[in-house]
Amino acid sequence: MPLLESTLPAPVLVVEDEPLIRQRLSTVLAQLGYQDDAVLFAASLAQARACLAEQPVALALVDLGLPDGSGIDLINQMRQADPAVGILVISAWSTEDAILAALRAGATGYVLKERDDLEVSLSIRSVLRGGAPIDPFIARRVIAELQPAAASPTGLDAESMLSARESQILRLVAEGLTNREIAEQLHLSRYTVECHIKHIYRKLSVSSRTRAVSTARSRGLLG
Ligand code: CA
Fold first, then answer.
1. What is the Cα–Cα distance from 183 to 193, expressed in whole angstroms?
2. Is residue 151 very low, low, confident or very high in pLDDT (cuts 50, 70, 90)?
3. Is 65 exposed, middle or buried (0-12, 13-18, 19+ CB in 10 A)?
4. 75-101: per-residue pLDDT in tens?
5. CA–CA separation, 223 vs 216, rounded Å?
6. Distance from the CA of 40 to the center of ligand 1, in angstroms?
7. Identical fold at 5-145 and 158-217?
8. I want to staple 174 with a disulfide (CB 3.0 to 4.6 A). Which of 51, 66, 109, 213 is the partner?
9. Within 13 Å, how many C-alpha atoms sit on residue 132's CB side?
């Protein structure tokens, strides 16, 4: 039962290149009470810009990884054109760079694609009500960013022990990515990722991903 129908800000622009996710968002919007004709779809930055040139939108759900560029550019453009428009990023990207860039560009909220429909729906509702929903995972990262890193109890300069690449990989391990996903995200072979992880284990004197992450955290290596 659509509760918001009479007050639903429309139209909604969905900028997403993956058909399955488009379908998913279309279903979520329908459940919120949106009629088909109130939802516009764009599969690229170019399509989104063409759409916006024809009519302003009240809400945009924006993916970041688009075939012709980054959704962040679109967010920038939309925010400059309309300080009030709701812009919710729905992205698979959970790296600090992506998140902070999107929020700086003017995104109203940020939710990860891996969340279930209910969570995505709640985030959309939150934006519609003037909120700024931030995925709990991201909120934790931001909070950690604002708090000083725990001092190394041994006085060991542990940060210098890990190479930049190793630290980067360990952060992705901490985010729960598999070796395959890390390899994909960093454009490395899976074998290379496994080698780096072995080195990380050795340097931190651990033998599991969980221990590597907790040890690195306790030494302030993961922020
Ligand atoms: Ca994409």
1. 6
2. very low
3. middle
4. 999 999 999 999 999 999 988 888 889
5. 9
6. 17
7. no
8. 213
9. 8
CA of 114 to the centre of ligand 1 (A): 13
* Beta carbons of 216 and 204 less than 8 angstroms apart: yes
CATH number for the domain running over 5-145 = 3.40.50.2300
Confidence of residue 1 (pLDDT cuts 50, 70, 90): very low
Please compute the mean of the pLDDT values over residues 53-69 and round it to a whole number.
Answer: 96
Ordered by start, the domain boundaries in the chain are 5-145, 158-217
Ligand 1 centroid to 66 CA: how many Å? 5
Quick one: pLDDT at residue 64?
Answer: 96
The rounded Å distance from CA 106 to ligand 1 centre is 19
d(CA 180, CA 44): 27
Rounded Cα distance, 77 and 81, in Å: 6
Q: How close is the Cα of 121 to the center of ligand 1, in Å? A: 19
Query: How is domain 158-217 classified at the architecture level of CATH?
Result: Orthogonal Bundle (1.10)
pLDDT at 50: 98
State which of 109-113, 165-169, 203-207 shows the largest mean pLDDT: 109-113
Is residue 172 within a helix (H) or strand (E), and if so which, with residue range? Answer: helix 164-174
In the chain, alpha helices (H): 19-32, 45-54, 71-81, 96-105, 117-128, 136-146, 164-174, 179-186, 190-204, 209-218
Ligand 1 centroid – CA 12 distance (Å)? 18
153 contacts 164 by C-beta, under 8 angstroms? no
